[in-house]
Amino acid sequence: xxxxxxxxxxxxxxxxxxxxxxxxxxxxxxxxxxxxxxxxxxxxxxxxxxxxxxxxxxxxxxxxxxxxxxxxxxxxxxxxxxxxxxxxxxxxxxxxxxxxxxxxxxxxxxxxxxxxxxxxxxxxxxxxxxxxxxxxxxxxxxxxxxxxxxxxxxxxxxxxxxxxxxxxxxxxxxxxxxxxxxxxxxxxxxxxxxxxxxxxxxxxxxxxxxxxxxxxxxxxxxxxxxxxxxxxxxxxxxxxxxxxxxxxxxxxxxxxxxxxxxxxxxxxxxxxxxxxxxxxxxxxxxxxxxxxxxxxxxxxxxxxxxxxxxxxxxxxxxxxxxxxxxxxxxxxxxxxxxxxxxxxxxxxxxxxxxxxxxxxxxxxxx
Amino acid sequence: xxxxxxxxxxxxxxxxxxxxxxxxxxxxxxxxxxxxxxxxxxxxxxxxxxxxxxxxxxxxxxxxxxxxxxxxxxxxxxxxxxxxxxxxxxxxxxxxxxxxxxxxxxxxxxxxxxxxxxxxxxxxxxxxxxxxxxxxxxxxxxxxxxxxxxxxxxxxxxxxxxxxxxxxxxxxxxxxxxxxxxxxxxxxxxxxxxxxxxxxxxxxxxxxxxxxxxxxxxxxxxxxxxxxxxxxxxxxxxxxxxxxxxxxxxxxxxxxxxxxxxxxxxxxxxxxxxxxxxxxxxxxxxxxxxxxxxxxxxxxxxxxxxxxxxxxxxxxxxxxxxxxxxxxxxxxxxxxxxxxxxxxxxxxxxxxxxxxxxxxxxxxxx
Amino acid sequence: xxxxxxxxxxxxxxxxxxxxxxxxxxxxxxxxxxxxxxxxxxxxxxxxxxxxxxxxxxxxxxxxxxxxxxxxxxxxxxxxxxxxxxxxxxxxxxxxxxxxxxxxxxxxxxxxxxxxxxxxxxxxxxxxxxxxxxxxxxxxxxxxxxxxxxxxxxxxxxxxxxxxxxxxxxxxxxxxxxxxxxxxxxxxxxxxxxxxxxxxxxxxxxxxxxxxxxxxxxxxxxxxxxxxxxxxxxxxxxxxxxxxxxxxxxxxxxxxxxxxxxxxxxxxxxxxxxxxxxxxxxxxxxxxxxxxxxxxxxxxxxxxxxxxxxxxxxxxxxxxxxxxxxxxxxxxxxxxxxxxxxxxxxxxxxxxxxxxxxxxxxxxxx
Amino acid sequence: xxxxxxxxxxxxxxxxxxxxxxxxxxxxxxxxxxxxxxxxxxxxxxxxxxxxxxxxxxxxxxxxxxxxxxxxxxxxxxxxxxxxxxxxxxxxxxxxxxxxxxxxxxxxxxxxxxxxxxxxxxxxxxxxxxxxxxxxxxxxxxxxxxxxxxxxxxxxxxxxxxxxxxxxxxxxxxxxxxxxxxxxxxxxxxxxxxxxxxxxxxxxxxxxxxxxxxxxxxxxxxxxxxxxxxxxxxxxxxxxxxxxxxxxxxxxxxxxxxxxxxxxxxxxxxxxxxxxxxxxxxxxxxxxxxxxxxxxxxxxxxxxxxxxxxxxxxxxxxxxxxxxxxxxxxxxxxxxxxxxxxxxxxxxxxxxxxxxxxxxxxxxxx
Lengths: 366, 366, 366, 366
Known about the structure:
- The structure is a homotetramer.
- Chain A is α+β, with helices and mostly antiparallel strands.
- Helices cover 27% and strands 22% of the residues of chain A.
- The first copy, chain A, has 8 helices and 18 strands.
- In chain A, the strands form 6 sheets. A 5-stranded antiparallel sheet of chain A has the order 1-2-3-7-4, with helices on one face. In chain A, strands 9-8-10-16-11 form a 5-stranded antiparallel sheet. A two-stranded antiparallel ribbon of chain A has the order 5-6.
- In chain A, a hairpin with a 4-residue loop joins strand 1 and strand 2.
- In chain A, helix 1 crosses helix 8 (332-358).
- Chain A is globular, with a radius of gyration of 21 Å.
- Chain A starts with a strand and ends in an 8-residue tail after the last helix.
- The mean pLDDT of chain A is 93.
- Chains in contact: A-B, A-C, A-D, B-C, B-D, C-D.
- At the B-C interface, helix 8 of B face helix 8 of C.
């Protein structure tokens, strides 16, 4: 995992800026023989695509993915898969203000301080547009997983918007696709709609918490002590723009538990070990248990808001800045498919790693 | 970062089990000419060492570190530094129960499922004893940082034990060294002592939240988009035993904020940019801002408790297990120096990475 | 260095097949602020381009490179640089024979055995066309080197074609650009022209030896013991299609030398150490001495020849194969700019690595 | 592969200097369940051990290997294996001369130039003693290979000493263990004994060429285009001290061949493809063919000789140096087990890599 590359064996390198000619992902290490066609990837990109409802940015990016290499006659060849998404909706507007001032809460100032140069148009490399490439790569990972672990399912959804959390008692998997927030709580979806509409109209923004669950992950993925499954999941989620916290299973809440409460008790079921609870989030000692792998991450609110904020210019003068434009009042919404994509990449990577080291042969129980 | 190695240029590989002859860390990529002697590392190990007060395990491990290579006439040579800590207090007790049963909340079952073999003595590789090697490696990182960034300070402390949080209004840096919990809140220290004593006597355990702050980190460390400073910090902390959540700056709480509240406003100060707040935790777009770098992580309670828990045996039979022995009622305490060590390693690694790519030359402001 | 990626800090991942829509290189870790424009890269691609004279394949590929990311207002930004070369001259011919039979001396059979699928059109991923992407990436490395080490020069040339070697007494740097073989020996160029013309007309092919020299490389690049400069150079050159041997300095000939003959004696010159000879090829203990870095590699003859060769089909039947088409009688010619590109990438990578670890500060002599 | 680490999934990091307390190898990624005991590794170390006959250095190092971690009840656990070899025969002699002067042909000067500090005692990190750690790690790889690919055999032998080559017509596998040079040509062994004795008595030294063959390697190991099997073998061999050239199959001689001569023709045999010859050295397109994998490397003569050589001091003064001591007249001899060890590590690594990506399922022929 170095700079713009993620993964050990299934390696994804994303490239591109929001206002250059294109962006994409170079995917190396995909198993051969996986069915792959652009439309298999496009379905996931369409979920992340802006402009789908009033709660996401009104930019119109078709985000159409092209496969430039690594696929032959509809199947992966085992060589690098180049995925390219052309940038089309680049309004030729005046970037003067942003080019000279640093937006608070944005990467403007740190890119400048590090590199002494930055592509300020639309955030350049730091734009959330980069995540389109991750979603495309995640689509490849999903297809590979499908062929290797039939029945595996990776699903993301929103569990908190601003201060409003879902009610776990109303959790309904079928609701997730029924509302613009991908939330499993239908009542929350209604409440959030009104809440976010208010924020949107006032030019404000708010954060969110996304949960991603992988069901059907075999036991035995991960490794001590830096190649842990949870280490890589934490890295994967934290690498998404605007993410400030990552939790596995009980997460930060684990601090409040006693040993008695935290222990997920084990009994023998017809198909192997069964657990009384899942505080571990499906991972013990960095290795999957066979339970659902559960990750949550918090997305901060967009820093692009209409209320003026204090900042400074490149020449070191105090100033104020308002970020107009077509921004997401809750970028967390579009982070859902991104989180799913990162989960898919990590699980596949560890599946390959495990197969490499152990051959996938497991210690028997019973 | 692969399996047992952490870092890009400053690379730490830890090795060893709790009940083998020794454990240690192979540190590669240390800058040459850094002052290094065993006692510089020992001071940090002594903080992590068990048996220092009644709130940590009563095992007696001297945890003495030896430098086997990479240091010549008191200075690092730029070649690999081998740090070895011999295991001495290995009670020759009967491990029969643990060898056949899997402790709930423990890596016993997943190691078995993955590898088909496990060193069950004291947790083997999954033992928290492994973190001694990290602390030793962190000591090397601290010395290197000292020579590269004079004035840098890395400090960890406990901010929550079980459900009890510190009061930030009572935060006092000087208190940290004054109590067995390394907490900056003297009042909390008192309360926790009573609370933990009760848990200890009942053979129970509880979780905690640790915060680690790096002060004096220059702006410009980190890189898009997977080599982010926060990505590596999240990975570093999540890789520590028993950690279930990681936060940068506002962390999970960022989800509750509006864009207005979250924006750390910027003004020009005498020595460069100044910020009105630090929700970002010193990192924007994956790159350090020059503010304090602030990381928090949650440590779950030890699963080794006296209350019997349901489990299964290797042969697949239902059973109960009690974990006797000399365990920490709150392993979070001893995680403080470990978190500091990981912070030191990550900051140094990114300092070297940044120097490699950019030469450390910064975009000027003003 | 894993699968399709080369380098530690300056990392090049090439992608693409000879008959897909495009191929290219994803270049990560380039220093920021380096002047970069397509024409700076194109000049090197034009040297490798087929169809320039009768001694190279008559395919007509414009090999025009596009920069899709990582460059803003004519300078590198420090983020990934995507270089794309579209494939244009893909004759829609019948590949039936090659799709069913394995060409001896070619990757056809091993790709099939490993992946169970292969893009047989023009060799797919194993085509020498992949080296165009390396040359483009090498162009980036050259520009970065220019800004970091003024005066550095990287030059490749042919020193042997088939059994015919150059006469080192006739070595003339100025001749290299004057003949189609990039050889410094004008007399050899004449002889080889006649020799190769004969081979070409008979549909045969022959091997060659290329030497690449980097002049002006500072002392101190490289590292023990697997990150050696010569280790990475050997890997870089051996990774080029058709290369079967790599030598540093005296190379395989070092075996014949006595210790007395091999020792490059050192004297003190006005600008530092001077050497009586350069059997070491500018590298001692894996680290550059400041002398010319000298690498040689042998390129085997194209296996695509007109003489029928015995082979088998996918269904396991014995067969014969003739490879018609527009092949190079001596692919070694076009390997010259490829070797230069790899040298440029390795030197830059080690320059960044060294700056990362040591800050580029050197032990003083005198 | 970075600095002191070698390998992708089976990763070996060596550490230690010739005159420190110990040296060793940290082996990460070994498959679990491999039979391992010190004596399995010791047998290979004993082959490399100095002082076995008059043709190797008369230092007496027992080179006893200890396994400090990663093995439980005689089997690898899948966690890091720490191999340690204590340094015992460190004569407390005066190193004054070497500490101030740089030996020509030695790493003395470059270590100094790079790091500004060097452990001059016995060459420190650049000592050939480092290769003991490789041999130990190679022993682990051999045991793992044995369990994964029954029948695989890795054998190294000397094919050239100074200007004297073996006669391939006299090649006899059984001779290799019968002479101090591990050469398959009994007549050469006799001649070389006399030749080397002369060199030894005169305090001189000479180079050699070692060939290492892996028999029984399955087809399909390796990967395009930087993860090639030959790329990694070239890197592995070039990383050995004093190696200046590496060849695969026909090697540098491939340059002299025509396409007709070079093509290894294929016919269908009872157990799959058969080849008329092996110019490819068992590797096509970077992937193994199932033929013998054949690598050769040239070892330069020891630079430690009795004839005075010109050099300079740290203070920049011209000087002469004689290297007394107990040095090998032909270090190539002891490089034989080292080359075998590197071959074992590379083959195992690629076996795991291949199993990870493809699951080891092969394209069928016939």
